[in-house]
Amino acid sequence: MNITDYISQYINPLTLQSTVKSAQRLCKDVPISHFPVVENGKLLGSFPERDLRTIENKNRELKEYSYLLDHFFTDEKTTLLDLITLFADNDCNIIPVLNEAKNYIGYYELSDILDAFADSPFLHNESETIIVEKNVDDYSMSEISQIVESNKAKLLGMYISSQSINKVKVTLKIISEELNEIVQTFRRYDYTVVTVHQDDSYLEDLKNRSDYLKKYLEM
Fold first, then answer.
1. Nearest 5 degrees, angle CA 85-CA 86-CA 91?
2. Contact 187/124 with Cβ under 8 angstroms?
3. Mind listing the pLDDT tens digit for each residue in 61-97?
4. Distance separating alpha carbons of residues 213 and 160, to the nearest angstrom
5. Which residues pair with 43 in a beta bridge?
6. SS3 47
7. b/e code 123-157 from CB counts within 10 Å (16+ = b)
């Protein structure tokens, strides 16, 4: 799956010369939380729908309310999980996208990203979760991958789930019929196997974010 396939251009962005009246009309027609504002191909920010609706003087131009703009966006190199976090952190259902030249090229919609997330094998494949710990200066992602794959297992993904001054914990999602052999190999390489279970707090947080974001699908 190429996440950039989900970039949409269906909704034309506003400009600072757009009137409040035209923006409020758009709010009624399009159920999104924020409306991107673009000038000469550059993103200036996004007007929250809830703020646009409260402006009383409908004949004024949006440039008089530029202080209301929210400033968040992503680029073409973003990942699916980063997008979900960005949606939740900004309480939105649309995220503007910029290319390498920092030009506005469209936006991601929450509903599309949740659909992609729901189909993700990382989340839904039958797999095991292992959390391993090692000194910050000694752990290696490549070594972790090698340990898993040398035991004829499939690595679906891994993340640094916590880090202190001296220690780092890495959460792994793997497919394996010989989990015990993997655990023993990690121990031989001086990793502490913190826990082995079907789920972990990081994945649970992702699921919670996904559930939280679903409320926007009915906006």
1. 100
2. no
3. 999 999 999 999 999 988 887 888 889 889 999 999 9
4. 23
5. 38
6. strand
7. beeebbbbbbbbeeeebeeeebeebbeebebebbe
> What is the C-alpha separation between 173 and 154, in angstroms, rounded?
9
Residue 103 dihedral angles phi and psi, to the nearest 5°: -95, 145
Can you tell me the distance from the alpha carbon of 61 to that of 108, in angstroms, rounded to the nearest whole number?
A: 26
User: How far lies 208's CA from each of 68, 156, 218, in Å?
Assistant: 29, 20, 18
Token readout for 7 is: 């970039």
- In angstroms, rounded to a whole number, what is the distance separating the alpha carbons of residues 33 and 36? 10
Q: Which of 190, 151, 192 is nearest to 174 (CA)?
A: 151
Residue 183 is which amino acid?
V
CA–CA dist 73, 108 (Å, integer) = 10
pLDDT at 150 over 60: yes
